[in-house]
Amino acid sequence: MTAAPRPAHDRLARRLGLRDAVAIGLAAMIGAGVFAVWAPAAQAAGAWLLAGLAIAAFVAFANAGSTAQLAARYPEAGGAYRYGRERLGAWPGFLAGWGFVIGKTASCAAMAITASAYLVPAAWQRPVAVGAVVALVGVNVLGVTRTARVASVIVSAVIAVLLVVVAAGIAALAGPGPASAGLGTTDAAGAAPVDGPYGVLQAGALVFFAFAGYARIATLGEEVKDPARTIPRAIAISFGIVVLLYAAVGTAALGALGPDRLAASTAPLVDVVGVAGWSWAEPVVRIAGGVAALGSLLALIAGVGRTSLAMARDGELPRALTRVHPRFGVPHVAELTVGVAIVALVLVADLRGAIGFSSFGVLLYYLVANASALTQQRAERLVPRWLSWAGAIGCVVLVATLPPVSIVAGVAVLAAGVIVRAVRVALQRRRAGEG
């Protein structure tokens, strides 16, 4: 099945080169997750945290390979929604798109609140989070090249700070040891890590949240120059950089703090520089945490907007979301609608479970991507079939290890979407029969 060509007025402009696509992928992955994911992962796996990181990296690698392979074949907006629809049918495509849009909208709200929590006192966090959403939606609406430029600046600064954290971890390991340092942001009691393979898998599921982001490049596929060549290269480059960086940061955090103190920390990377005695770096790391969350939010808004556009083109969401700005070449109605939904969540929702719910939706999204990649013929394959199988199985396993409340919430929201779509399809068929 091949997607029908879009009318000229309905197409997005191809303005992103390789460097722009890599910047957006890095900004999507190097976000708030790398500043926050280590403590809950250590609670689950203890000293086996790096094994959980390796599992998350492998599943993410398999997903990235399948995504790159599909993006080269279908260089349109929508990512796994488009791939599932073209390769597997309307229902799998809908499930991928619905999971992505709902999960990532909640993740956007979580990123906005995380950024404000790092940057301002508690009383100002909600207003600042709303202001951040409004500002970054505005950046996206002004054009995707501006999104890429801002993402490039943000990710460069955050990588520099993460390298400082790694250096601090090395310095702490070379010194007297973590026990000699006062960790102002930790609770000495800590939580006992989960024992056994389940704990390691749960750590992998949690760390996977920090990896999820390379698909943002694929969701922008209709705006990338020479997509068959650029998208796979951009995914490979950004993913490779992130794996190396996360391995260094995770090793530094675990080595400098030890599993118990890392599990108890509320700001683990701040604590790493504290252990090293680099007090000057603590506010820098806090600012970087806020900026990283804003970078992720910027890229997430772009990705959710494009997936909403793709679903609206197929009648899965309101047709008004298909409008593309005549000057800036972006789906401005979709992005403004996403912005309104994010602001509403920031103002009224309890987002404590947003991370788990987002992981549920993202893993479903990649399950559809891997299943779609398995249907491609040898001439279209960039990765071996066994890797796509491994990615699909890995997604199912990681979903099963998420907290039960996240699984229940994810299933409930997906079921609601399925029911609404089933009713709509039934009504359309009935009208067609009457006609």
What does this protein look like?
By secondary structure, this protein is an all-alpha fold. The radius of gyration is 21 Å and the shape is globular. It contains 17 helices and no strands. The longest helix has 38 residues, at 227-264. Residues 1-10 and 177-193 have low confidence and may be disordered.
Domains (count): 1
Just give the CATH class. Mainly Alpha
What percent of residues adopt helix (DSSP H or I)?
over 70%
The total count of helices amounts to 17
Alpha-carbon distance between the two ends: 27 Å
Q: Bin the strand percentage.
A: under 5%
CATH architecture: Up-down Bundle
Per DSSP E runs of 2 or more residues, the count of β-strands stands at 0
| CATH homologous superfamily (4th level) name | Amino acid/polyamine transporter I
The third-level CATH topology is Amino acid/polyamine transporter I
The secondary-structure class comes to mainly alpha
